[in-house]
Amino acid sequence: PRAASARHEAHDRREAMERARVLEAEWQRKARAKDERRRREEEEERQSLARAAQAAARAAARQPAPWPADMPLCGADASARARREAEKEEGLARVAEHRTNLREQEEERVREALRKMELRRVGDLIQRGDGE
């Protein structure tokens, strides 16, 4: 009976060791699969970012250049450009008119100052008795 008991214990230990080896192998396999999946996802993310950067660069390269001034435009563009040009000319005309007004006002102030100076001079001469 004791020998049979010892054989059963030895058998149970071998089974437990085998189960432990199987579980260890299973754990290692799952850990390797998880690491591989993570590496693959990181590589896919890196490639996705690279593709997005390339697509953005291609899109930027495809942007049309500014329209040359000497090329004819379609109707809407031409009318918009004509309207902008007219607004620009109108603005320049307003600026020129404002400058002209300022210049005229300054000339008027100078004439008024000269007139006052002349009146003072004449008044001074009259007071001294050197009337003209």
What does this structure look like?
The chain has 132 residues and is mostly helical. It contains two helices and no strands. The chain has helices at residues 2-62, 75-128. The protein is elongated and about 160 Å long.
Q: Identify low-pLDDT runs.
A: none
Structural class: mainly alpha
What is the global morphology? elongated
Number of helices: 2
Order of helices and strands: HH
Mean pLDDT: 87
Helix content: over 70%
Largest sheet: none
Radius of gyration: 50 Å
Tally of DSSP β-strands = 0
Quick description:
The protein is mainly alpha-helical. The chain has helices at residues 2-62, 75-128.
What order do the helices and strands come in, and which of them pair?
Blueprint: H1 2-62, H2 75-128
List keywords for this structure.
132 residues; elongated; mainly alpha
